[in-house]
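To illustrate the input format used throughout this study, we show a single complete record. The first block contains the structure-token representation of the backbone; no residue identities are included at this stage. The design step must infer an amino acid for every position from geometry alone.
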């Protein structure tokens, strides 16, 4: 996430502080950050109609800027084209190989379809951590270890997209890893100002 976006998120947190949403996002992000034990163990999946591309990009940025490699997501896709780059053609079968120490992060504004619920259930049985960001899905919520629910319509002070921004920013929050986070962000800022160093 770039510096301008970081400032925007900080301002958003300040405005939303009375609603409790920034703290809810921090708690959820802490679970996201600590449940995955190795790079390649964070599996991010949506539904056939809504793949979480935007969140995947933000988590990838946060991973790079904070130095927390476990935050680099693998985007699991429903119908990936065979000619897509390797990192963009990871299919649902990857969920069937989930194991203890990995995290399955399900992001869906709609009810999760049965094929996804079956794979989530299987991943939970073998010890993977299940996290869910939803707009209310009793079956999926029942399988998840941690759920963050955004009430649809005007019932929530944040939108589903805004909640994803809050979670991704909190996941790479420098407060959690101050030495790595500050150094990584300073190096990034220097790269932006003067260009990357030769070494």
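Output of the design step:
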């Amino acid at each position: 996430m770039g510096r301008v976006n970081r400032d925007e998120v900080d301002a958003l947190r300040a405005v939303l502080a009375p609603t409790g949403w920034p703290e809810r996002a921090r708690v959820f992000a802490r679970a996201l950050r600590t449940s995955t034990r190795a790079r390649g163990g964070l599996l991010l999946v949506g539904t056939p109609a809504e793949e979480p591309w935007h969140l995947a990009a933000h988590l990838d940025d946060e991973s790079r800027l904070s130095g927390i490699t476990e935050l680099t997501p693998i985007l699991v896709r429903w119908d990936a084209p065979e000619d897509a780059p390797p990192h963009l053609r990871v299919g649902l079968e990857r969920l069937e190989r989930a194991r203890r120490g990995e995290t399955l992060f399900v992001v869906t504004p709609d009810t999760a379809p049965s094929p996804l619920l079956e794979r989530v259930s299987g991943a939970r049985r073998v010890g993977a951590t299940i996290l869910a960001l939803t707009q209310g899905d009793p079956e999926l919520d029942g399988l998840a270890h941690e759920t963050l629910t955004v009430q649809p319509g005007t019932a929530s002070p944040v939108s589903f997209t805004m909640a994803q921004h809050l979670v991704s920013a909190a996941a790479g929050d420098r407060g959690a890893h101050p030495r790595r986070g500050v150094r990584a962000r300073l190096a990034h800022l220097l790269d932006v100002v003067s260009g990357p160093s030769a070494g």
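Structural context for interpreting the output: Residues 176-182, 195-199 have pLDDT under 50 and may be disordered. The chain has seven helices and five strands.
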